[in-house]
C-alpha cells in the first residue's frame, strides 16, 4: 500500500476518539443525534460493531453505543426513513446480530414489525399515487428516505416476506412511463428539484440518476435481490428499462463514460444533456455509484458486455484527473472514502485484470484522506475534529468504515454497506 500504515489502523484510531456517546465535544444535544444513521449515533455504533466483529476492539464499546441509540423512544412510521428512526437503528442492530447470532433479537423483532407496517403503508400510498397519474416525490422511492432503502433492509431480514415482494412489485411499476400533459415521462420522474422542493431552475421537474436519490438505487436493489434469488414478475425487465435510460444519457468523454446527475424537462425534450468532466464521481451522484449499480445489473441480467462497460467506467473515472479534482473531501457519501470503498466492492465482482487494477487504486484513494506518511492517529484527529458531522455519510465514522472494509482485517461476510446498496451479492461471482 502507499499508506504508511494499514487502512484498518485509521478505522481503529477514529473509533478510539469516538469511545463515549455522551462525550460533550460531540453534538449530543442535537435532535437528530440518537437516531440518525447518516449523522449520529447509529453510524458510529456501526463502526464499533464492525471493529468488534473483526476482533480489533471489544464488543462492549459497540454495545455501549447501541444502548445509547436505543435509550429513548424510537421514531417509526411516516416520520422515520432508512437513515432515521426505526429502519436506521434496525440496520445497525441487524449488523451486530449477524456477527453475534441471538443478540438484540427482541429489539429487532419489534423494529421489524414496525418497518413491515410502514412498508405496507408506503407501498399502498405509492400505488394510489400512480393510479391517480401523479408524479412521485424522490422520498417515495429513493435509497435515503424511500422504499428502496426500506427494501434493502427487508432483503436482509425478511427476503421471503410479502412486504418485500410488494416493494419490488411497486419498483417494477415505477419503471413504467407516465403521461402527464400528453408527454411521455419515465415513471420515476419527479415534479420537484433534486432537493425535493420546487425550484425555478427545474421547470417541469427532473429525472434523477443517482444512487442516493435517483433511479440507480432501485436498479441496484432489484439486481441485488435477483442475485439473492428473490424475483417478482417484471423485475428483470425493470432493470433493463433503467439500464436503457442510463445508456440513453451516457456521454462518452476523453475521461470515459459519464452520466448526468439528473435530466431536466428541457433536456428531455431536446434529447440532449451536456455533461462536464468536472463533476465528481461519487457514491451519491456520479460515475462511481452508477458503475456499481450497473455492474450489479449486468450480473443479474447475465450481460458480460454491460459488466465490462461498468467496470471500465469506474477505472476511467478513477484515472481522470478532471473528475478526481472535483472530489474535495474524505467522506463516504461523496469523497475519497466512498471512491475507495466502491473500487474495493467493484473489484470483488470484476474480471481478474480489472480487479487487480482497481485493488491497486484503493490505497492511492485512501492516501488522499490524510497526508502521506502521517500517523493514523493524526489523520483520525483531523477527521473527528469536525464534531458537527461525526457520522456515516459525511463524517469520520463513514471514512473509518470504508478504510476498514478495504483492509485485510475486514470481516468478509459483512453487509454494513447494505444501506448504500454497494454490498456483495449473496454468492461469489465469476
Describe the fold and architecture.
It holds the Pfam family LANC_like. There is one protein chain. This protein has a two-stranded antiparallel sheet with strand order 1-4. The protein has a two-stranded antiparallel ribbon with strand order 2-3. It is globular and about 60 Å long. 51% of the residues lie in helices and 3% in strands. The two termini are 26 Å apart. The model has no long low-confidence stretch (mean pLDDT 94). Strand 2 and strand 3 form a beta hairpin. The protein has a domain of 294 residues: Glycosyltransferase (Alpha/alpha barrel), CATH 1.50.10.20. It has 430 residues and is mostly helical.
Give the class-level CATH name of one domain: Mainly Alpha
Would you give the CATH topology of one domain?
A: Glycosyltransferase
| CATH architecture descriptor text of one domain | Alpha/alpha barrel
Terminal residue distance: 26 Å
Q: Tally the helices.
A: 18
Helix percent reads 40-55%
- Based on Cα principal axes, name the global outline: globular
Strand count = 4
**Strand order of the biggest β-sheet:** 1-4
Proportion of β residues? Answer: under 5%
Pfam family, one: LANC_like
GO biological process, one term: peptide modification
Protein name: Lanthionine synthetase C-like protein
GO molecular function: metal ion binding
